Amino acid sequence: MNSSLMQYYAKKWRLSYANMQIETHSSFLHWCVRDGASHVLKIYKIHSDELMSAEVLLHYNGQAAVQLVAYCEKAILIKQVGGGVNLSKRDDKKSTIIYCDIVEKLFNVSTRLPKLKKLIELINGFDQYLQKNPNCNEKKLFIEARDLYIILCETQQSQLVLHGDLHHYNILQNNDKTWLAIDPKGYIGEREYEIGAFLRNPIDDKVHQLKTIHSRLAIIEQRLNLNMARVRKWAFCQAALASIWAGDDLNQATHFVKVAKALKSIC
Description:
Strand content: 15-25%
Oligomer: single chain
CATH topology of the largest domain: Aminoglycoside 3'-phosphotransferase, Chain: A, domain 2
CATH architecture of the largest domain: Alpha-Beta Complex
């Protein structure tokens, strides 16, 4: 991490630094203290897919999401959420119920819509990959997912702010035992899209089994007022796209393809 950037934000936002820092695919994270309270400073990488997270967190305003404290074009400061326990630490039924509660609260935030990407813009992920890899092993699957994705985009109903990456690893338990969403990507789209990230996570052999998928979908159908046929179709398309985004991570790519094929069988 660039130490001069750390020093810049420390001065800008009155931070003292703790000893913990990590690097992710999209940013540098540094645990720090401001006014005696624990915070996390996130400095984005140039091509980060979370550059609009401040807009989304402003929209949520702490409702079922981490509290945004300060932000600028290249970084955000958020309150630290508990000790880092995420939703993957709960059994599948409990985690699905907690997830539905978070989704319902995020859907009920009613403020102006910020300027975020539309879902159709993600189609480039399919197109660029297929152009570079015309003979890839899962070409038929990717083409089918791409074509369905376009149809879904063109037939969306009412749209709202979507977290865009709401899965087990991005829902943390706070010190008061409540659960909060972190790390939004931020899109504008219909509600049914949001469920896809949850259905393909965590990276576990049970996730792509139809028994697990049906169990989750049954709870989601019971607790959220969604068009379940569209939920399944969006989730299939997203799982296929996620396998492309996984790049050289063969474990993730293989997992997401398995999830995509399982979802395709029930679309």
